Amino acid sequence: MPPSKVWQVTSKGAAELNLSVELLAPLAAQKLASKGASFADEATIATEGLAGLERALSLLQQVLSLQATVGALAKSVHILEVSEPGYDVSYSDPLIPFSVFLNVSKGRFADLRTTEALVHEAMHLQLSLIERFVPIAKVDQGLHYSPWKDSQRPVSGLMHALYVFRVIDQWLALLPKTSQEAADYAEKRHKEIGEEVGQLDPASLVDHLTAEGQQFLSRLLA
Fold it and tell me: How much is the average pLDDT of 140-145?
């Protein structure tokens, strides 16, 4: 089902980054809504949504290797509406490749939070594409504690989370600290991600990973 309207968001730096922002047709929006979030309306997208994404792309431009990856994977963005300024939600679906769903953040660290959501969902899509050719988890995955969900999760979900947050941590380490806000956010997230990764029990995961998955785990924990 084609979208009702499409906008283009472009950021020109050392490399050009383009995203399509889609307003879904009502029936498609109803089917794809997830996690209690609704889709933003046309007026919100055209004002707050596009402007917020432009600022997020400007931040991505500062780390070119990641910018290229996100640009290749998150080609279509669907903007969500959330109930509170300090609350963010994003998701993606491997069955809907090259599409991400996220709100444009408001409040403290807004642009950095929007950028992190873009990176987060693009990395999920990237790993899902890799898994089509190189499985990292065995069929019998077992359930293991996830510090990100505070619940028991399959190994594949834990590996996705570990990968995504390692990439985010590296992005923030490489991001030029041109403002106190950027420095504060990077320090805050580095501490949070480190604490979450530290709650994992890697030894319990190994038997449920393929040989490639075990090598991948070792690299992520190095």
Answer: 86
